[in-house]
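A protein record in our archive is deliberately plain, so that people and models can read it alike. The record that follows is passed on verbatim for readers who wish to inspect the format.
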Amino acid sequence: MGNLGFLAPVLGVLVVLFFIMLSSIKQISEYERGILFNFGKFRKILGPGWHVVWPIFQSYSKIDIRTKVVDVPEQEAITKDNVSVRINAVLYYKIFNASNAVIAVENYNYAVSQLAQTTMRNIVGSVKLDELLSERDAISKNMCEILDVATDPWGIKVENVELKDISLPEEMKRVIAKVAEAEREKQAVITKASGEVEASNNLAKAAATMAAAPGALHLRTLATLNDLSSDQSNTVIFAVPIEGLEALKGISDIAKAKSKEAENK
């Protein structure tokens, strides 16, 4: 009986130690890292697998190192040319130094979101509206570089930033539509004028070719008459020989000469 009374407390202590040992075993998944503290001081980073973390003396924090997506809320900003716009974006980042993400910043996810909002407003204020609409990729790249430098002390790598949507006031949309319409009309007028210039040059070349070839104009006249004859209309055509027109021109010149002689007398 004395031996049994002695073994009971020992067994109780062993059972307690067993459960403490089981509760001290912590699992770190492949996509996680553990930050181990001894008496509140940083000791090391725990990799994937099972680790023993003694209660009271030690503590740890898990950090997910997978790429995270932050939806930057819609922000109202004013561009460099004083146009009010509303813009939102999406941010991709991952943790490359788990210890800094825990020690250097209190809440890295909230900090990255707030920094992204501020940076987006600052960048929008430094560019004009035309640049914001036409160079979205360059602005996104610039924003990514600025955020990456700012979050580097936190152990965070900003991988990409994409501007999702840019909302303009209705008045500005109408103004942009009018400008685009005027630009299209301008291009149409320029294209039409270029076509007329090209057509006149071709007509001049055709006229020079016909004038250089005897009988070419007669053949062209006959071809035109043939085309008109196939049209079932009431059009009446009088064909006058060119020689007759030249004779009339000569008579007109003689009459003018006689009138001048009469005036001189």
